[in-house]
Specification:
This protein has 21 helices and 16 strands. The chain is an alpha/beta fold and about 525 residues long. The strands form four sheets. It has a five-stranded mixed beta sheet, covered by helices on one side. The chain has a five-stranded mixed beta sheet with strand order 13-12-16-14-15. Helix 17 runs antiparallel to helix 21. The protein is globular. Bound molecules: flavin mononucleotide and iron/sulfur cluster (SF4).
Length: about 525
């Protein structure tokens, strides 16, 4: 890095880890890196700068780390103007400074996690296959190759992995259906559209540990007999697209993608495609239409994509997190993975804490942690310092939960039992200034804007819903209009072709049920029904 470099302590070149995740970039991590390079030059010190993804502690970004002996020491949030003082304080040796956070693993937010899917994210050089391998990468594929297709499917089934895209369908069963369907061409499609509000786990993997997705898709391909894969993401993720495209090129050059992957007899390659950011294009059949170059309209099911998917061929379509979790399952075994979690929700879930929350970020833990623990303890309450009034869990189609339901464990069945869903694991926090009538109207408006238009309850119902909420806001026949909303929600729930129209009633009805006072309604009206 400098012409006549000196190295520090014991002639060992310092290693400085600077995140290049979109979140860290937005907060100035490139400027921080430039300031570090300039500081090293001025001091004639040589160091290796490694660009990583994010550890997912967003309130501390940009969080930089230095290797000190066998440990890393973190500093954050660092701005470019802090860098000179960090040098002066001796940060390259991990010395004290107001921004010193100590060992990242000891920060309570990280210490409470069980990082399996995100084990490498924020730690490895995101574009180094050697670093990926040094951190247990490709152990899953190695074992998968020794097991063969049928046993891979069995292993994924036994792990209890359920789709992390929202519906929670068992991944192993989906794979078995595709494996048992005869066809000359089969596909693996990764759903990285990530449209849910407050979610970013797919993006973090693409930017921070892209080889885990490539490995997971490769294992899926071997399991079902597919030779081609697509990753479908949104054009709003330019950094993810850039990093993942570079990772694909590296994987091809190093022969873990393409003909005879990893010296096996299996051929598999992947392409990445960007959609325009329509929420409905995350729905699996609309996504397939979009991938085929058509308008993103939902297809009627059956036939299932497993039988008749992309270009009419049998297709595994899984969420990115589902696929990126497969390597650890194969590497460590189904039993290891299934030991995490509760009930029928096995393994870990990357929960994404956002909105008005003090400590926003990614929290991966076994299923079972309660909403209260997540919001109050891990998230630290609101960023505004005001009381938490509501949280929306599971994206724009998820229910609003009041504080009274904060004992709900993060578990598919527990959320269903309370008329909610965990979706893709997003939690958006609101303080006591939130107007729940506006949130309910927003749910209808969102549905009206994002509807693909194929069925009437969603296309027309959502527009009528917005109008009814406007009448309620003007105080016109409030209780009659609330009855109308009840009725409309039932029609949308029962009559919509897909979950966009079918689940919009969840945020609407939960807002009415738990916060009736915001609608000028009689408290307890809906709750009592
Ligand atoms: C309106 C709508 C939007 C959706 N958006 C996404 C999305 O952005 N990402 C995703 O993985 N699944 C999304 N889904 C769920 C997919 O249809 C599908 O269940 C999922 O890709 C299957 O993968 P999994 O089994 O691994 O979860 C959406 C569903 C609906 C109805
Ligand atoms: S519910 Fe809405 S998004 Fe889904 S198929 Fe019907 S119109 Fe399209």
């Amino acid at each position: 890095m400098s012409p006549a470099p000196q190295t520090t302590a014991a002639n060992k070149m310092p290693r400085i880890f600077v995140p290049r995740d979109s979140g860290a970039l937005a907060l100035g991590s490139d400027e921080v890196e430039r300031a570090i390079v300039a500081g090293l030059r001025r001091r004639n010190v040589e160091a290796e700068i490694i660009r990583t993804g994010s550890r997912g502690l967003f309130w501390l970004e940009p969080m930089i780390e230095v290797s000190v002996g066998d440990q890393r020491i973190a500093y954050g949030p660092v701005s470019a103007s802090d860098v000179e003082k960090l040098f002066d304080a001796g940060f390259l040796e991990g010395k004290p400074h107001a921004l010193r956070l100590g060992q990242p693993e000891e920060i309570p937010f990280l210490k409470r996690q069980n990082r399996l899917t995100f084990a490498r994210c924020g730690i490895v050089d995101r574009l180094s296959l050697a670093d990926y391998r040094a951190h247990d990468g490709y152990k899953g594929l190695e074992r998968a190759l020794s097991l063969g297709p049928a046993k891979i499917v069995e292993e994924v089934t036994q792990s209890g992995l359920r789709g992390r895209g929202g519906a929670g369908f068992p991944t192993g069963i989906k794979w078995r259906t595709v494996a048992q369907t005869n066809a000359a061409q089969k596909y693996i499609v990764c759903n990285a559209d990530e449209g849910d509000s407050g979610t970013f786990s797919d993006r973090m993997i693409m930017e921070g540990d892209p080889f885990s997705l490539i490995e997971g898709m490769s294992i899926a391909a071997i399991a079902v007999g597919a030779t081609k894969g697509y990753v479908y993401t949104r054009s709003e993720y330019p950094h993810a697209i850039e990093v993942f495209s570079r990772a694909l090129a590296i994987a091809r050059a190093e022969r873990v993608l393409g003909k005879g992957i990893a010296d096996s007899n299996y051929d598999f390659d992947i392409e990445i495609r960007a959609g325009a950011g329509a929420y409905v294009c995350g729905e699996e059949t609309a996504l397939l239409e979009s991938l085929e170059g058509k308008r993103g309209m939902v297809r009627a099911k059956p036939p299932l994509p497993a039988h008749h998917g992309l270009f009419g061929q049998p297709t595994v379509i899984n969420n990115l997190v589902s696929l990126a979790t497969v390597p650890v399952i194969l590497a460590q075994g189904a039993k290891f993975y299934a030991e995490y979690g509760m009930g029928r929700s096995r393994g870990t879930m990357p929960i994404q804490l956002t909105g008005n929350v003090k400590h926003g970020g990614l929290f991966e833990a076994g299923f079972g942690v309660t909403l209260g623990e997540l919001v109050d303890e891990i998230g630290g309450g609101t960023a505004s310092g005001r009381p938490v009034r509501a949280v929306q869990v599971g994206g724009p189609l998820g229910a609003y939960f009041p504080r009274a339901l904060f004992d709900t464990p993060f578990d598919y069945e527990a959320f269903t039992a309370r008329d909610g869903l965990i979706g893709h694991g997003g939690i958006v926090v609101f303080d006591d200034t939130v107007d729940m009538a506006r949130q309910a109207r927003f749910a209808m408006e969102f549905c009206a804007i994002e509807s693909c238009g194929k069925c009437t309850p969603c296309r027309i119902g959502s527009t009528r819903g917005v109008e009814v909420f406007d009448r309620i806001a003007r105080g016109e026949n409030v209780s009659d209009n609330i009855e109308l909303i009840d009725d409309l929600c039932l029609t949308m729930k029962l009559g919509s072709l897909c979950a966009l129209g079918g689940f919009t009633p969840y945020p609407v009805m939960s807002a009415l049920k738990h916060f009736p006072e915001d609608f000028g309604a009689r408290p307890g009206r809906v709750a009592a029904e």
